[in-house]
Amino acid sequence: MAPEDGWAVNRTTSSSSSPVVTEKLLAQHKEKHFTAGDMVRDVIMGVSDGLTVPFALAAGLSGANAPSSLILTAGLAEVAAGAISMGLGGYLAAKSEADHYIRELKREQEEIITVPDTEAAEVGELLSQYGLEPHEYGPIVNSLRKKPQAWLEFMMKFELGLEKPDPRRALESAVTIALSYVVGGMVPLLPYVFIPTALKAMFTSIGLTLVALLFFGYIKGRFTGSRPFLSAVQTAFIGALASAAAYALAKAVQAV
Predict the structure, then answer these.
(1) I want to staple 83 with a disulfide (CB 3.0 to 4.6 A). Which of 153, 178, 195, 209 is the partner?
(2) Average pLDDT in the 227-254 region?
(3) How confident is the model over 161-183, as pLDDT tens digits?
């Protein structure tokens, strides 16, 4: 039988359906998919903003000829405020996702109880989208109807596309984003700790931050599956553009 849609499937013998053989096959095969997407997204969000915003602020204040001590104080205040704001935003976003899941779960559960035939028909329609014929998905539908909890989870995942959220997700997201913001934000401010002259500190901060942006962009590209070098250049360009705009704006305001 010719493979469908270009798929060449390696079919095993019927003995592979036995529990013992299935467990053996699963033990031999180790999945290599990347599954820490939420945490990586939080780190990327926190570090990217942490590197860019304080960097632009410090450059802008340097353009206004502010002393290093003032730039450092303002920068630390911004990092603290930014970390709290970003962390709170992450918490509220994750909490909203969890609340949405619970609302949809209750609605779907009620529909399974009140209109089970309609929900069963929806299961059949979902499975038919994967190429299954009625005589093939019929036993699956009947089996799910005997297991209400499994039926509910199936509908949540495949009909609504919703995954059950981790109850700790909101707090973990808030802490991850906030700490990532602090780590990223301290990079452009470090030169102002050791160099009293604001202009010299600014040039050092530019070099240090650009290196950090390039490194962070490269790592981000590796994790997200995009081209690492392109991601590094794009990340550094955005950071440099933001700081240049802030510096130019400060100079323009000072000249007025």
Answers:
(1) 178
(2) 77
(3) 878 888 788 899 999 999 999 99
Give the span between the Cα atoms of 94 and 172, in whole angstroms: 9
Amino acid making up residue 254:
Q
What is the CB neighbour count within 10 angstroms for residue 24?
Answer: 12
Distance of alpha carbon 51 from alpha carbon 58, whole angstroms:
11
Query: For residues 187 and 123, what is the distance between their CA atoms, to the nearest angstrom?
Result: 52
Q: Which residue has the tokens 């998919």?
A: 33
Q: Which residues contact 87 (CB under 8 A, 6 or more apart)?
A: 174, 175, 177, 178, 181
pLDDT score of 14: 46
* Cβ within 8 Å of residue 184, ≥6 positions away: 46, 47, 48, 49, 50, 51, 52, 54, 212, 216
What is the pLDDT at residue 11? 47
Please, is 162 exposed, middle or buried when counting C-beta atoms within 10 Å of its C-beta (0-12, 13-18, 19+)? middle
Reply yes or no on whether the pLDDT at 130 is more than 90.
Answer: no
